[in-house]
TrEMBL record:
Cited SUPFAM superfamilies: P-loop containing nucleoside triphosphate hydrolases
Name by which UniProt lists this protein: Small ribosomal subunit biogenesis GTPase RsgA
Keyword Nucleotide-binding carried by entry: yes
Residue stretches making up the EngC GTPase domain: 103-249
HAMAP family, per the entry: GTPase_RsgA
UniProt cofactor note: Binds 1 zinc ion per subunit.
Domain of life of the organism encoding this protein: Bacteria
Gene: rsgA
Species lineage: Bacteria, Pseudomonadati, Pseudomonadota, Alphaproteobacteria, Rhodobacterales
Similarity comment: Belongs to the TRAFAC class YlqF/YawG GTPase family. RsgA subfamily.
Chief subcellular location: cytoplasm
Cited PROSITE patterns: ENGC_GTPASE, G_CP
Entry EC no(s): 3.6.1.-
One term under GO cellular component: cytoplasm
Length: 345
């Protein structure tokens, strides 16, 4: 792969504008394709690179899809460019900080199937993360050929928001490249998410022409198991880039209040008219949301899931804030201890 231009890789004026004059002469821009424990793989105009990180940059702060600057001869990654978008999630038990999933996405393909995998609450979780990150969500519902009521699944998915893109698929027989074409062209980056078994690999193979399967086999890596579960960036036949996200089970929400409101617009709009600003929309007098439930304008199940997600988000956000506060205080303590030591010398 040596015939790719920066534009082919997804480069845009947004990234160009972050470079200093002449920086292109000294440094090479590259796009991260895989993140490992102690190094990353990237793709530049001249082909694949394996890079180690300069001091101050850790693999926890680099994501697949990132644009970076590097010194290829020295195999050094010297800096990460500001992201256009960033998809992250709360960790499973909301202990520490959030976990980066992917960078510089235009679209999130949220995959589910016409069977027991279909779960409105989980779809809303994905929608909240996508909306919060300003990444366009598209819900893909596979196995449409295995049910009598595919339209019922589509209608249910469409009811989870306004103007939602929902696409029914028979991932095995449909022309995936044609149907998903609008999101997969040059300059576009998408991430493919969903539970195990919903057809992600089938879709990825159709979009990339099989690259998803073959690229995972890396004979030069002794820890082969590591690579098969890693997220990675693949070129699609239509010219865009696909990030697959295997092994993403827990999907916690944290710091996504905006995304939750955007996922439940019928509720958040009403909530603005409640008598109390901190209304929990339960038994409070003057609750505009409860009034809309009574008149049948809001689905009570949506309110139940909205409240649940809001509570989880508030708790996780608080935990993260406390953890950040602690590490800031610790930093100050260390600094002042060092200053005292200096003074006492
Ligand atoms: N009939 C039918 N089968 C499908 C469809 N989509 C996927 N399958 C089948 O479902 C099984 C699982 O598909 P995969 O593409 O491996 O699913 P996955 O999401 O990659 O699953 P993991 O690899 O476990 O993450 C395979 O046997 C597919 O052939 C569909 O739309 N219709
Ligand atoms: Zn209310």
């Amino acid at each position: 792969m040596t015939d790719l231009t920066l534009a082919d890789l997804g480069w845009s004026p947004f990234f160009m504008s972050q470079l200093e004059i002449d920086e292109l002469e000294t440094h090479t821009p590259a796009r991260i394709t895989e993140v490992h424990r102690d190094r990353v793989n990237a793709l530049s105009e001249t082909g694949p690179l394996e890079l180690t990180l300069d001091p101050g940059i850790t693999t926890a702060t680099v994501a697949v899809g990132d644009w970076v600057l590097c010194l290829p001869d020295q195999h050094r990654l010297t800096g990460v460019l500001e992201r256009q978008t960033e998809l992250s999630r709360g960790t499973e038990y909301h202990t520490g900080d959030k976990q980066l999933i992917a960078a510089n996405l235009n679209t999130l393909f949220i995959t589910t199937s016409c069977n027991n995998d279909f779960n409105p609450a989980r779809l809303e979780r994905y929608l909240a993360l996508a909306h919060d990150a300003m990444i366009a969500p598209v819900i893909l519902i596979t196995k449409a050929d295995q049910t009598e009521d595919a339209d019922g699944y589509r209608d249910q998915a469409m009811s989870l928001g306004r103007h939602l893109e929902v696409i029914l698929l028979d991932a095995k027989s449909d022309d995936i490249t044609e149907i998903l074409g609008p999101w997969c062209g040059k300059g576009q980056t998408i991430a493919l998410t969903g539970s195990s078994g919903v057809g992600k690999t089938t879709i990825a193979n159709a979009l990339t022409g099989g690259a998803a399967l073959t690229q995972d086999i890396r004979e030069d890596d002794a820890r082969g198991r590591h690579t098969t579960t890693a997220r990675s960036l693949h070129r699609m036949k239509a010219g865009g880039w696909l990030i697959d996200t295997p092994g993403m089970r827990g999907l916690g929400v944290a710091e996504v209040a905006f995304g939750i409101d955007a996922t439940f617009p019928e509720i958040s709009e009403r909530a603005a008219q409640c008598k109390f600003r901190d209304c929990a929309h339960e038994t409070e007098p003057g609750c505009a949301v409860q009034a809309a439930i009574a008149s049948g304008e809001i689905d009570p199940e949506r309110l139940r899931r909205f409240n649940k997600l809001k509570r989880e988000n508030a708790q996780a956000t608080e935990t993260i804030a406390q953890a950040r506060d602690r590490s800031k205080k610790f930093g100050k303590m260390v600094k002042s201890a060092m200053q005292t030591k200096k003074k006492n010398r």
